[in-house]
Amino acid sequence: MGRQFKALMQTAADFVLGHKRDTVIVILVIIIAALLIAGCAAPTQPIEAAHAQQRDSGTFAVATLAPFGSFEWQLAPGYTRLAVLRRQAARALDRHQIDLARAITVQTRADAARRQLDDARTMSDRGDKDGAERALAQALRAVEWAERALTEAR
User: Fold this and answer.
1) What does the alpha-carbon distance between residue 43 and residue 23 come to, in Å, rounded to a whole number?
2) Fewer CB in 10 Å around end: N or C, the chain?
3) Which one is predicted more confidently, 19 or 70?
4) Over 90: is that where the pLDDT of 11 sits?
């Protein structure tokens, strides 16, 4: 990989020296976008296959682009907790800390919580603020229920 990267950088340097600045910037943006897309394009696998995977780095990043103070901003922690929970369950299964039945229970509860978060978002989009707030509270309880399924097993 090191030689390939070095060759790519040499090609880019040769290109930069022979072309206009705007063209170089466009090309660099395209290259960066392609690298980002390639880095993020990982196939997902069902939980049954998670135990067959090789060890990963353990790094897991989450973020939101929801506007500050919006209802989506209130939903974001629930979605984030679910993403982390799913990852933890898959890793615990891979490490034989939980059995397949427990992992499926966690994922099933996480699916239910996700549906409730989606319902809260739909209500908010339709203008039903009170219903959305109630649905969000219920969804967050469902997230806790899913988290308990994992922590009880450990």
Assistant:
1) 33
2) N
3) 70
4) no
